[in-house]
Design the sequence.
């Protein structure tokens, strides 16, 4: 590891772009290697054993790219296979989504009535619930969790704001209105791409994007280890990002360019 190495980010598909966007916001001078395992998306409906194997393969790929930090931009992996990633990464630091997102939600919520939406695997793992209860330390906290499995394929298909997406969002989210939550954890990195639709249904609820808070954690970690690149007093027109995908590179390229808001290099197709 050295100060000029890249930050490695991996996700099952497009969702990790929401994390990458936050990293660019807080760490604009860093270079990035992004891996989207688009051939095997979604991870959220797969067994813990399969998710663990996929996570190890993605980690091994990033290690070969000489990264100085591995960001698990996937809540399913963060919930079920973070130990796999840490074991394979060895001395390379690893940041997941659960701890930063839970801590932000706990600090944000005034009523301590918190909702969580995610993939089946993330919700079934109860990882966010466990983290929130540990933070509450036996104080009163009400947690309401719901799996929203159709959100990932909607995002992957670019259906971010159409009528079908809104109907499905109502189907999943309307029940939270009666729970009087004041904070909702978007426990899947695909979900921030649907933030506008979610906000229409729950306008007075604070949305917690784990990607934002994981990027702040990464900034602190890299600073402590003296691995931050030197900030230069120049305008960065386009961040240094190398994209890799396991399927459909053209589709990924179009959506990445649209979501990030700047032109990006075509992703390289790889086989894990």
Sequence:
């Amino acid at each position: 590891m050295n100060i000029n190495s890249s930050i490695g980010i991996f996700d099952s598909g497009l969702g990790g772009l929401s994390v990458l966007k936050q990293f660019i916001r807080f760490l604009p001078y860093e270079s990035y290697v992004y891996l989207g395992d688009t051939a095997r998306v979604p991870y959220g409906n797969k067994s813990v054993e399969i998710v663990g194997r996929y996570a190890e393969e993605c980690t091994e790929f990033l290690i070969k790219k000489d990264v100085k930090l591995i960001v698990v931009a996937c809540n399913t992996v963060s919930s079920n296979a973070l130990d796999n990633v840490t074991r394979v990464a060895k001395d390379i630091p690893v940041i997941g989504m659960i701890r930063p997102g839970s801590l932000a939600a706990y600090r944000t919520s005034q009523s301590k009535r918190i909702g969580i939406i995610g993939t089946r695997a993330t919700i079934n793992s109860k990882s966010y619930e466990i983290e929130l209860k540990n933070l509450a330390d036996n104080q009163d906290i009400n947690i309401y969790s719901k799996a929203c499995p159709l959100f990932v394929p909607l995002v992957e298909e670019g259906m971010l704001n159409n009528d079908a997406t809104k109907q499905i969002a109502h189907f999943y989210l309307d029940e939270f209105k009666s729970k009087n939550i004041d904070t909702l954890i978007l426990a899947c990195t695909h979900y921030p791409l649907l933030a506008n639709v979610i906000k229409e249904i729950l306008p007075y609820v604070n949305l917690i994007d784990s990607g934002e808070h994981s990027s702040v954690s990464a900034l602190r970690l890299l600073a402590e280890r003296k691995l931050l690149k030197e900030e230069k007093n120049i305008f960065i027109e386009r961040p240094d990002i190398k994209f890799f995908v396991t399927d459909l590179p053209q589709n990924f390229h179009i959506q990445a360019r649209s979501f990030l808001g700047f032109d990006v290099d075509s992703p390289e197709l790889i086989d894990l």
Observations:
- The beta strands are 7-11, 31-36, 69-72, 94-95, 113-118, 142-147, 183-187, 206-209, 240-245, 268-269.
- The radius of gyration is 18 Å.
- The CA atoms of residues 38 and 248 lie 7 Å apart.
- The longest helix spans residues 48-64.
